[in-house]
Amino acid sequence: MKVVILCGGKGTRLGVDTKTMPKPMVKIDKDPILVHILKLYEKYGYKDFILALGYKGEYIKKFFKKRKSKLKIKLVKTGNNTLTGTRLLKLKRYLSNEENFMLTYGDGLSNQNLNKLVTFHKSHKKIGTMTVVRPPVRFGEVSLVGKNVKKFREKPQIKSGWINGGFFVFNRKFFKFLKTNSNEMLERAPLENLVKKRQLKAFKHNGFWQCMDTPRDKEFLKKLIKSKNAPWII
C-alpha cells in the first residue's frame, strides 16, 4: 500500500524556520520531522511513498537527492498555493492501481499501530478511515484544592472530545469526492460529503499524538527526544 504525505503547506505559524524551508524539513533532532514520519511508516513495513510538494519543494528534492534510502520515494510538485484536497487529486495517476492508500500530513507524529489502522479500515469496507485523537492541552493542567496545588501535569490529553489525528486510509473511490474544477481543502467538502454518505469511519487512538504547528510544539518534540522519551520512536 502506498503512503501519501502532504508536504506543501507554508507553515507560517511555526515562525522563522519556515521562512527558509518547508515545515516538514524543520529538524526536531538531527533529522527533519518528515524523516521521523517516514521511519514511523517503515516500522510497520510501508516503503512506498509519494510526497506532495509545494512551498519550497526544491528543498525537499535536494535533501532526498543527497540522502541514501532503501525507501521508494516519489516527489511530485503540486503547486505552491494548492489546498490539501486538490493536492491529493493531483496525485491520482500515481495511485490508479491502488485499491487503498494511506495519507498523512508532513508535520504530525504518533505512536499508533498503523497496521491496526489498515485492518480496521478494511474490516469496515468504507471509503475512508480517519484516525481521531484526544488533543493535548496546550498548557500544563493544574488541579487546586483551595490555594494548594493538588496535581500538575504538563501537556495532558483532553479527556473528552476527538479531533482529526491526520493519519488516514482511503479507498480509491475517494477521488470521486474531489472536485476537478476548484482548489479545495481535503478537510472541508470532501470529508464532509464522505460523512453525509456514511463512508467515513473513526479509528480511535488514545496514545501519543502531537502535531508541530508552533515553535512551542517543536520544542516539546525536541525535549521528548533529548530525554529519550519520544513515544513514536520507543
Fold topology:
Layout: E1 3-7, H1 33-43, E2 48-53, H2 57-66, E3 72-77, H3 84-89, E4 100-105, E5 108-110, H4 114-124, E6 128-133, E7 141-145, E8 148-153, E9 163-171, H5 189-196, E10 200-205, E11 209-211, H6 215-226
Parallel strand pairs: 1-2, 1-4, 2-3, 6-10
Antiparallel strand pairs: 4-9, 5-11, 6-9, 7-8
Features:
single chain; 234 residues; alpha/beta; Spore Coat Polysaccharide Biosynthesis Protein SpsA, Chain A; seven-stranded mixed beta sheet; two-stranded antiparallel sheet; 6 helices; 26% strand; globular
Brief summary:
This protein has helices spanning 33-43, 57-66, 84-89, 114-124, 189-196, 215-226, and strands at 3-7, 48-53, 72-77, 100-105, 108-110, 128-133, 141-145, 148-153, 163-171, 200-205, 209-211. The chain has 234 residues and is an alpha/beta fold.
Number of domains: 1
Reading off the top of the CATH hierarchy, the class is best stated as Alpha Beta
CATH topology: Spore Coat Polysaccharide Biosynthesis Protein SpsA, Chain A
Q: Helicity, in percent?
A: 10-25%
Secondary structure class reads: alpha/beta
Task: Pick out the low-confidence regions.
Answer: none
In CATH terms, the superfamily is Spore Coat Polysaccharide Biosynthesis Protein SpsA, Chain A
CATH architecture field: Alpha-Beta Complex
Instruction: Indicate the mean pLDDT.
Output: 92
Question: Based on DSSP secondary structure assignment, what is the total number of beta strands?
Answer: 11
Query: What's the tally of helices?
Result: 6
Strand content: 25-35%
Quote the distance from N terminus to C terminus.
24 Å
Strand line-up across the major sheet: 3-2-1-4-9-6-10
Series of H and E elements: EHEHEHEEHEEEEHEEH
Envelope shape = globular
